């Protein structure tokens, strides 16, 4: 399998943390790609018409995307059990969707500041994206802590990658303020070897 990969993409990081946690890094070859909406690379476009990373190329079927599909596929492929069955499974998938929603909003904020010309920026729209992140963090603190503190699953990995990206690109916003339980949980998951090995470095 070949994974279209960028070291700063938090969606790619979800897949990489899964590979670290399951000890299956050697099963996937990494292919670097740094797509932006205005510069879609040809080789990535050929596999994923949306030209986004991650995309997983397989020998026995079309390429898979997006990160949620790839993580669910690899989980089944490796019998990893990161998507539990029953009621906790639906919670896990909802938690992953919440984390991906944080990422979608945070990435739009990043693109707005890093890619859009100064005279075309819209502060209210940026603040609207931040409000989504802020409400999601409030919900994590208020109703998701017991799930986050339970057995490891993909929802937790996704939340950790999302908070890591908010730190990386929007750290000055101070998401930890008033969210002590979430901050404490994040400090412990962030120190796991899988998270330390996938920490983003400068780039897009
Ligand atoms: N929903 C997708 C989002 C993936 C995504 O937006 N990736 C970014 C990099 S962090 C990207 O490839 N952006 C290029 C573009 O938007 O054209 C997922 O979960 O994989």
Helix content: 55-70%
Average pLDDT level: 96
What is the helix tally?
9
Total strands: 4
Distance between the termini: 24 Å
Pairing-aware structural class of the strands and helices?
alpha+beta
Low-confidence stretches: none
What would the principal axes of the Cα set say about the shape? globular
Spatial extent as radius of gyration = 17 Å
Which molecules other than protein and nucleic acid are bound?
Answer: glutathione
Spatial ordering of strands, largest sheet: 2-1-3-4
Listing every helix as H and every strand as E from the N terminus to the C terminus, the arrangement reads EHEHEEHHHHHHH
Q: β content, as a range?
A: 5-15%
Largest sheet: 4 strands, mixed
Structural description of this entry:
This protein is an alpha+beta fold and 204 residues long. Helices cover 56% and strands 8% of the residues. The chain has nine helices and four strands, in the order E-H-E-H-E-E-H-H-H-H-H-H-H. The protein has helices at 10-22, 42-47, 67-77, 87-114, 123-143, 145-148, 154-170, 180-190, 193-196; strands at residues 2-5, 29-32, 55-58, 61-64. Strands 2-1-3-4 form a four-stranded mixed beta sheet. Helix 1 (10-22) runs parallel beside helix 3, helix 4 runs antiparallel to helix 5 and helix 4 (87-114) runs parallel beside helix 7. The radius of gyration is 17 Å and the shape is globular.
């Amino acid at each position: 399998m070949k994974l279209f990969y960028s070291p700063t993409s938090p969606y790619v990081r979800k897949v990489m943390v899964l590979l670290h946690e399951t000890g299956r890094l050697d099963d996937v070859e990494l292919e670097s790609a740094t797509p932006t909406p205005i510069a879609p690379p040809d080789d990535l476009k050929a596999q994923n018409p949306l030209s986004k990373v991650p995309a997983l190329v397989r020998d026995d079927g079309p390429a898979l995307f997006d990160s949620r599909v790839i993580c669910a596929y690899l989980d089944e492929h490796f019998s990893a059990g990161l998507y539990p069955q029953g009621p906790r499974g639906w919670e896990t998938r909802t938690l992953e969707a919440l984390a991906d929603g944080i990422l979608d909003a945070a990435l739009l904020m990043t693109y707005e500041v890093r890619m859009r010309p100064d005279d075309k920026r819209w502060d209210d729209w940026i603040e609207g994206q931040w409000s989504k992140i802020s409400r999601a963090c409030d919900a994590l603190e208020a109703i998701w802590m017991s799930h986050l503190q339970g057995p490891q699953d993909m929802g937790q990995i996704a939340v950790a990658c999302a908070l890591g990206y908010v730190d990386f690109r929007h750290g000055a916003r101070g998401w930890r303020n008033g969210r002590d339980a979430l901050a404490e949980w994040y400090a412990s998951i962030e120190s796991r070897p899988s998270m330390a090995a996938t920490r983003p470095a400068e780039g897009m």
